[in-house]
Amino acid sequence: GRVKMSAEEILVCAVELGKNFCLYFDELECDALCKEKTLHRVLRNVNSQLLVVRPDLNVAAFEDVTDQEMQSGKGMHFSIHCYKTTTPLAGMPVAFSVRVEDKSYYMCCERECGEMIVRFKEGEVPKEIPGESNIIFFKKTFTSCCSKAFKFEYSMERGMFLAFEEEGYLRKLILKKLSKDEVDETMKISL
Questions:
Q1: Which CATH architecture has domain 35-190?
Q2: pLDDT band with cut points at 50, 70 and 90 for residue 90
């Protein structure tokens, strides 16, 4: 009888310790995102066009790309940096960077004249991100039945997603508000 008793007591202690330890840990993790893995992908829209970043022109747009252009791969081979998350429901936190002419550019969002603009700035993506960041997007499946395509929600303005809009012959990368319960094909991105 006595041995059992002490084993139970030890168990209870361990569980309580465990609980406190986890809680403490969770709080720590919420404050910072740590890079977990990096995927190397091209980003395609619903028309199978590739996202191409042209820093010299300050433009990112979905374009028809020839096989030859794709091999040279200027501004279209993205690194998708995945960060650890304690809130998987929001989606996987990711940051995007792309190499052009031996320089690295990262994607971020900035407010300009009252609207949110997607920008590419020279520099590397940080390994750790303390708290909020204008480079983080939440990767979500596009629709529940379509697990191959994604939409990317801007972490600092919920309901705003990466999308494209036609501007003349350009299909420019923009941030766009998703109206409730709507399926917006311009937000559909395949990796």
A1: Trefoil (2.80)
A2: confident
